[in-house]
Amino acid sequence: MSVPFREGDALPQLERQVTQDRIRRYAEASGDFNPIHIDEEFAASTPLGGTIAHGMLVLAYMSEMMSSAFGMVWDRGGHMNVRFKSPARPGDTLTVSGEVESVRDENGIVSFACSLSCRNQDGAVVATGDARVRVPVSK
Amino acid sequence: MTSRHVKGVRSSSAGAANVPASYEELTPGQELAPVEYTLDPEAVASYVEAVGAAECRYVPPLAVAARAIASLADLVELPPGTIHASQEFDFSGLVPVGAQVTCNAKVHKKLSRGSMRLLTLELRISDRAGQLVQRGLSTVVIPESPQ
Fold this sequence. Notes:
The complex is a heterodimer.
Chain A: E1 14-17, H1 20-30, H2 35-38, H3 40-44, H4 55-70, H5 72-77, E2 79-84, E3 93-106, E4 109-119, E5 125-136
Antiparallel strand pairs in A: 1-3, 2-5, 3-4, 4-5
Chain B: E1 9-13, E2 35-39, H1 41-51, H2 61-71, E3 83-91, E4 100-113, E5 116-127, E6 132-142
């Protein structure tokens, strides 16, 4: 693999729609049935005022973006650290983006440090964090 | 994070207590009972469809993690309204579809801020050969009392 990105490069963005149906399907697939995600009446009675997407669903989108940028090396050796800032709600359009902050060559293994963010259609930050991945490269 | 049986996922908690531990009962450093689960093709397909990811012969790393995190609800009392605050992951190996993995969780940190209670759990997920495939730190915010 040749060096896929340079310092300052933007990673390919990922856009996903959040719907209540998608949240329900995620709950069934993951086994996380917290009513804050799937019970609209319960969620409306909490300070959040309505259902929200699972944090792990948002994280899945962020990981998917890294996977599409770096391929299988991400899935078998990536590092990610993410903080959730505001909820993703049904009806939201999420855009996951990232930027390569640094590139370091260590004898044929190139380490990429990236910043990550996930925003909704209003530009509000849903989640932010950083990621690292080490990619073997051919010169 | 309230767990129920997931179609296509077989899990068991070796030596786990039947009653999940409350926040007050947990102490930093405490190890929770290991949970084993199998990521059957049906379960993986269901996950991939739910997140809109591409099909692959390996399980998406977040699918492995999601099941581990959901299984925590069998070990730790996480009342309705518990939300995820932060998450850290290190992936160190691919998990083939159909593989069985074991999640070992440990209480990493507890913190109370006013009415907010934060709990950080360290997760270590290994394959059947005992090889670590993922390590993570999950921090959740637990509401003061069940709503």
